[in-house]
């Protein structure tokens, strides 16, 4: 197995900078996800690693092999990179059987018949598709085709596996099962993996670490917990899970805490954070972190309930305090018109601006 290092990777299409100075070190055996909205540069980054597009500058190395040294005229061609690749559309050859689909990359690599058959058996065994070796792709379900595509990417035992939205053609239930299964297989094989998705729940569930991207740039790199619990900016706080954002003004900022005046005239105590112009700030808090309380005190707020939504495992309430509107989530059904809530200081994050402004 091998690690992957992207250094200052930049990819331009004319005036568009699709990937802007990306720096990531994926450890050997790690499962790293590139996550971000459509058009943020995930696939372009992945394709550059695979050699399917041309990077403009920077470097790409796998183990001690340099695949791209910064010179666009001097890149290692895709077939020499020894990388397994699975796309959203499984791209199986329709006129070849499952076994023939797997044989092709091995024949390209001039692997003899006996070893080829052995490896096909092994790869189909890994994805639990051995009984289907002689079927054609159209005789398989979407989930089965996706497993065959994965087996085809693994059959020549690449040290690096690249997955571009591989589960997005599956229905929701199957997709959830497939991601658990995929992660188990990846851990068993210990193959270094880059996974591309725009689905934040999927990224949180499968990854060792997540690189959150927006407009070609990496906004944060961290474990799922770090990304969810300590978002680096308001874009990440908004894109991963959901957050309320309160406009405020910094009144006092210390080493451990800050005091912020909100638009309803009240003040809350938060961790310290950077301010924007004229001391303006945005306080982010997740709906499920806001608590119901019986007594007034620091960081409490009386709010009216404007809307109630039953979400199955929790209720979501749209609430208001003066001009401030936000959401809270709790398992309890609330009948009252107005309630007292507490905004726990430790779950607040302070940013200089709202998502979209940065
Ligand atoms: P994602 O995978 O995150 O949805 P992409 O990597 O496909 O995003 O695209 C990133 C940006 O690069 C987008 O603005 C897209 O329009 C642009 N782009 C991608 N491929 C090309 C291309 N071949 N020519 C011109 N622009 C491209």
TrEMBL record:
Assigned keywords, A-Z: ATP-binding, Nucleotide-binding, Transport
Any one annotated GO CC term? ATP-binding cassette (ABC) transporter complex
Alphabetically, the GO molecular function entries are: ATP binding; ATP hydrolysis activity; transmembrane transporter activity
Q: Does the keyword Membrane apply?
A: no
- Protein name as it appears in the record: Iron(III) transport system ATP-binding protein
Taxonomy of origin reads: Bacteria, Pseudomonadati, Pseudomonadota, Alphaproteobacteria, Hyphomicrobiales
Family per similarity comment: Belongs to the ABC transporter superfamily.
What are the recorded Gene Ontology BP terms?
quaternary ammonium group transport
Q: Which InterPro entries match?
A: AAA+_ATPase (IPR003593), ABC_SmlMolc_Importer (IPR050093), ABC_transporter-like_ATP-bd (IPR003439), ABC_transporter-like_CS (IPR017871), Mo/tungstate-bd_C_term_dom (IPR008995), P-loop_NTPase (IPR027417), Transp-assoc_OB_typ2 (IPR013611)
